[in-house]
Amino acid sequence: MSIDKNHLYNLLPAVYRERDEAGGGVLRQYLEVLSDELAVVADGIDQLYDDLFVETSAPWVLPYIAELIGLRGLAPSAGGGLTPRAEVANTIAYRRRKGTAAVLEQLARDTTGWPARAVEYFELLATCQHMNHVRPRNQATVRVRGASRLEFAGTAFERGSGEREAPDLVHLPEVRRIPPRRGRYNIPNVGIFLWRLRAYPRTETAALPVVAGDQRRFLLNPLGGPVRLFGSPLSEAEITHLADPVNVPMPLTRRFAARRLADYYGPGLSLAIAGVPIGAVDICDLRDTGGGAWAHTPVAPGRVAVDPFLGRLALGDAQATPPLASYHYGFSADMGGGEYDRTASFATIEGPVETVALDGSEGHTTIASALSALGLAGGAVQIADNGRYEENLAVNAGAASIEIRAADGQRPLLVLGADLAITLSGESEVSLNGLVISGGAIRVSGAGRLALRHCTVVPGVSLDAAGQPTQPGAPGIVIESG
Fold it and tell me: Of 190, 198, 200, whose CA–CA distance to 117 is shortest?
């Protein structure tokens, strides 16, 4: 903390302050030095109070708090698993609920860093009901007409998933063991389901018309292929709560998304179309039906149909400009560009930073014009949105260093009309950061340094409507220098 240097001086009687001013202010200077030392003491007192709580204590205090609660062998922090602070904080909660499915689920989540769901398989056995413990959801047979429930068969959510009056998907006992993956449903068996893929956001990205000039049908994937939409997991408030589908990054199905649309659609949630309220959204099957047509189209005026399985939009009204969509896709790690923190990977380059945005809110609307503004002195071109940039680019670094990067939290797409020609010379360096590059290869000539950080080079130059490479044998990076 900081202490006002005039505070102590103003506490003195006025007569002493007047004499001090007349004598050159020596007392004021002394109190200013003293206030700095008092601030250090006050910070120490504040930290002593913070050290009483595991959430705010200094790292060196954690082993002492762990000793107080009988936790020994506290491991140092390593990777994205359970941190020492979390281990100490959760120890009491773990011990109070030892042996329950809830704590097994929490332990799995803490140690792996992946969302988890624990399943006690004895609850999914078809059994005779005891009159003192009636389980209405545990039915002896499965409703074959319940397609919305049957899509969870064999998954982590056979127990109704917290949905109102949802029946359990019961099974006959399996006496085979779990390790060979031959048997699950038996009295002593417990399963832990983990979600390795995370739900990564794409915010306010212009949808791509399925064909040029189509004003009603769009693809959410700016590369033109299908994309499976994922649910952004909601946090669980209590350790006793077993994860529901809304608490894990699960790929969305059409039936489930339609049934739980309020949990997934809207600003800040898993899916949102700019300017479209939830009341105008229908979850539909928009698969191809031949001849370039989609199922369940045309859509009624004022309505918007969304296919979360294929990542498609169909609108009842013609759009003058492609709609802006926010959604989540599944991926395994912070790589290849995305809306995660990349600031530490930015190149340290002396020179100006030219900013680009398609809507004209920044200094440039094209990457080419920003590169021209840098000139021979070098610098950085920063793309400030998730736009689709269809350009022909050539980068001649000369003796300078140039970086073309997406701003932190952005993942723009660069659609090349020809190969991206990069010419290096001497000690020059060109860095590409956070970009998705499609439509052409990166072709490098000359001697120098090329750095690719958090970039996705689309395989086979570009993708077709099925998501397959259009030129499977074509390289993405060509080095022409020795």
Answer: 190
The distance of Cα 134 from the centroid of its chain, to the nearest Å, equals 42
Contact of 51 with 58, CB cutoff 8 Å: yes
pLDDT tens digit sequence for 199-252: 999 999 999 999 989 999 999 999 999 999 999 999 888 888 899 999 999 999
Tokens matching residue 26: 């020596």
Are the C-beta atoms of residues 403 and 381 closer than 8 Å to each other? yes
Give the separation between CA 124 and CA 171, rounded to whole angstroms: 6
Closest CA to 414 of 351, 337, 479: 337
What are 285-331's pLDDT values in tens digits? Answer: 999 998 889 999 999 999 999 999 999 999 999 999 999 999 999 99
Distance CA 428, CA 391 (A): 23
Helix (H) or strand (E) segment spanning residue 368: helix 367-374
If residue 150 lies in a helix (H) or strand (E), which one and from where to where? helix 147-150
User: Which residues, listed in sequence order, are joined to residue 167 by a DSSP beta bridge?
Assistant: none
| Structure tokens that stand for 386 in this block | 């998730």
